[in-house]
Amino acid sequence: MLASPLTATIYLPLLPLLAAHFHVSLQAINLTLTLYIVFQAISPLLFATASDSFGRRPIYLITFSVYTLANLGLVLNRTSYAGLLVLRAMQSLGASAVLAISYGVIADLCVPSERGAMQGPAMGAANLAVCVGPVVGGWVALGSGSYQWVFWCLVIYGGVVVVVVGFGLPETARNVVGNGEKKARWWGRTWWSLLTVWRRSRKGSMDSTKVNLDEEKTEKNDRTREESALKKHRFEIPNPWAAVRIIFWKDTALVLWMAGSPYAIWYCVQASIPPVYKDTYGFNDFQIGLSYLTGGFGTVVGGYTNGKLMDWNYKMTARQIGHTIDKVSGDDLNHFPIEKARARGSWYILAVYLCALAGYGWAINFHAHVSIPLILQFVLAAISTAFQQTFNALLVDIFPASPSTAAASGNITRCTLSAVAVAVLQPMVDRMGRGWYFTLLSLVGGGGGIIAIWLTTTRGMTWRHQRLRIDAIE
């Protein structure tokens, strides 16, 4: 889950170095950022949707291989600005589907009542990369005086992940292996298991002819079942527009707003950090990089704490309606108010969040002591992570058959809202001032949040059943 946020942010300190090296303007280099965001939205449409049909493991290996090769190309590209654009697009294409696929893996492995505990650390790690990336990129670039060593670090990271996934991650997609009772084809097995089978076949480790015949019969039956399953799925071509369609359902639109708007607002806070701490507090470049760390710690604390809270809310909701949680096969969410379970207590968190957001703007506006905006960054990061984690989990819950496709729709919403928010950031700050700008953000986010939470808890389950009936007819 680190790939996309780490790659996006570790690149930021390199912009002046790249402009000087390729003899182009900063505006031209900024185009590489825009291109990265564009492919950040496209990649999950292609790969996350495919992972629901063909499995997580092969898509992981393909995307990380593309990612690693793109980074190697960026190391070797010394003169071509056009090459920089193409390789940056490939880099994003390989990295940006990982988060959505990872949500699918979590949904494969964890029953709904225990997903919070798994998503907490995963979400915290992903958001921590956003804050640590600029510090690492700046440190490597400052120490080496070259942008190439940053890309070498990403080559090593990508290569290590390919090896770890290849040897250690078996197929988890339920469409492929069910609850684990179905045997995956060779591309769904770890390299270690394939190597073990090859060694055994070389050694001929069969005890008797009977065992040989029995195993031969079993393997033949396995192959027959696999070929039959393959024929059933052969023509199920992944539909990238399935993720787009999710956005327009009534129940999912509310969930996507609650998952995407806090991310967009937090992106605005992060975009405001360099000018705020440079102009208002006189920080140098290294100190500005360090100022991102309070938000990073907030994402870790928020992700871990909220993961525990999500599971507790689930148990409390089940207790209130007299439901017995199935920790083996997982609950049938068609008859469980999962919307109420996930959104439980969101009103109180939203109130704290809005006060912290407006307070951040006015603290900067009145040049409050530097500790105040830093503390508020911690609070905003923790709560933004909590909302993203909670409502992304709900999104996966209400699309159990295609969790990665659902997560891809969340990625589209998040990127779109972030692009719009950042595009209007500086013009509105210039016109309104930071205090009123962040107050406006709190009003928009708060108003939308109140409506989304209320409708999700009161109408969400009804709308979900309506959507399922329509899908069944189609």
Describe the structure.
There is one protein chain. The chain has 20 helices and no strands. The longest helix has 40 residues, at 434-473. It has helices spanning 3-10, 15-22, 26-54, 56-76, 81-95, 98-109, 115-144, 148-168, 174-177, 191-203, 209-233, 241-246, 250-280, 285-291, 293-320, 338-343, 346-365, 371-397, 403-432, 434-473. Helix content is 80%, strand content 0%. Mean pLDDT is 81; it is low at 206-216 and 229-235. It is an all-alpha fold.
Q: Which helices and strands occur, and which strands form pairs?
A:
Elements: H1 3-10, H2 15-22, H3 26-54, H4 56-76, H5 81-95, H6 98-109, H7 115-144, H8 148-168, H9 174-177, H10 191-203, H11 209-233, H12 241-246, H13 250-280, H14 285-291, H15 293-320, H16 338-343, H17 346-365, H18 371-397, H19 403-432, H20 434-473
Helix pairs in contact: 1-7, 2-3, 3-4, 3-5, 3-6, 3-19, 4-5, 4-6, 4-8, 6-7, 6-19, 7-15, 7-18, 13-14, 13-18, 13-19, 13-20, 15-18, 17-18, 17-20, 18-19, 19-20
